[in-house]
Amino acid sequence: MQALVKDKPERGASLLDRPVPEIGDNDLLVKVKAAAICGTDIHIYQWNKYASSRINLPLLFGHEYSGEVVQVGKNVTAFKEGDRVAAETHIPCCHCFQCTTGLQHICRDMKIIGVHVDGAFADYSVLPDVCAWKLDPSITYPVGATMEPFGIGVHALAYTQPVGKKVVVFGCGPIGIYAQMVAKLSGAECVIGVDITNERLELARKMGTDVILNATEVDVPQEIEKISKGFGADIVVELSGNQAAVKNATRALRRGGDLVFVGLFSGPVEIDVTNDIIYKEAKVYGITGRVMWDTWWSAQSILLSGKLDPGPVITHQFGLEDYDNALELAESGKTGKIVFNI
Question: Is 105 a catalytic residue?
Answer without folding.
Answer: no
